[in-house]
Amino acid sequence: MSTAGTATTPARGSLGRILRLGATRVGYETRVYFRTPDSVFFTFLFPFIMLGIFTAAFGAAGNIGTAPDGSGGISVGAYYLPGMLAAGMLLSGVQNLSVDIAGEKSDGTLKRLGGTPLSPLSYFMGKIGQVLVTGILQAGLLLLVARFLLDIELPSEPEKWLTFAWVFLFGVITCAFLGIALSALPRSGKSATAVVIPIVLVLQFISGVYLQFYVLPEWMQNIASLFPLKWMAQGMRAVFLPEGFASLEPSGSFDLPLVALNLAVWLGVGLVLSRLTFRWIRRDS
């Protein structure tokens, strides 16, 4: 029996060749992504749409966090911007990759790639690189829309942007590995969206993306804390929300060291699971 279909397939070729093939795959995967209208709409543009909807629907209600005397607070758009940035990472990594790879397994693309010199590491590099490229473009455009179309003030402190950089990179790479791992769950490409989208949608509702996290029941907050989206959203709130909003977090602070610890744990989980579950062909094929 060929070993191409197992998770223990050794890397093929030298490290230099693996890296070159991986870099080539990044460009290929990115082009394919932007040529797929449903992927672009439901992963790349979705945070823009939701931020616009929340701003338009609830903006007339006034600022969030306003003091009793009517002063202070931030606009609805400013409050939801961190959550939409976190949701963008989740959609680009977990939803996009899990559905995409499940489809490639189902239509035989992975089986054909398994017969080429492409190693799993090069394949992973292509997928993760695509998520990084599209994630950076998405976040950059979302920030431009927030600043110039929605008139949301962005941080001016360099340390805030340093926090943004590590939360973003940590979150994107973690979501990419989790997306690769989750692609093993659907039985076919046709069932992938039915399996993945409910998981992603529930996580967004309980993790402070569409609902204000501090108003959720404690048990729901505890469940959300078991998953990485809650920590990505909390890290983004530390960047874009005023310090006064830290008191609304469960611990009374944005607690960035705990954000980093949880994302590091999930990055390790995603890396191990993606390596253990990835196969060029399904085990039951």
Automatic annotation (TrEMBL):
It is found in: Cell membrane; Membrane. InterPro entries: ABC-2_transporter, ABC2_TM, ABC2_TM_bact-type, ABC_2_transport. The chain crosses the membrane at residues 40-61, 73-91, 131-150, 162-185, 192-213, 258-278. GO terms for molecular function: ABC-type transporter activity. The keyword Signal does not apply. Residues 38-284 form the ABC transmembrane type-2 domain. Belongs to the ABC-2 integral membrane protein family. This is Transport permease protein.
